[in-house]
Amino acid sequence: MAHLGFHHCEARSWHGWHRHISLVMAAAVFLAKLAADLRRAASGKRNETSSTMPVTA
User: Fold this and answer.
1) What is the C-alpha separation between 13 and 16, in angstroms, rounded?
2) Which residues contact 49 (CB under 8 A, 6 or more apart)?
3) How many other C-beta atoms are found inside a 10 Å radius of the C-beta of residue 41?
4) How far is it, in rounded angstroms, from Cα 35 to Cα 28?
5) 31-49 pLDDT, tens per residue?
6) What is the SS3 assignment for the chain?
């Protein structure tokens, strides 16, 4: 998590700390999902547990 800014936190309030940590954790989740998708695509395997219905926003 060092590359995401986790160790750069110099928050002076709880609200600042909470915002910083929330963004760092969201970035970590995004990058973990991206890495998993890229590994899956490189291996040519489909995720058997995922639904066949596309997710719409």
Assistant:
1) 5
2) none
3) 10
4) 10
5) 999 999 999 888 876 656 6
6) CHHHCHHHCCCCCHHHHHHHHHHHHHHHHHHHHHHHHHHHHHHCCCCCCCCCCCCCC
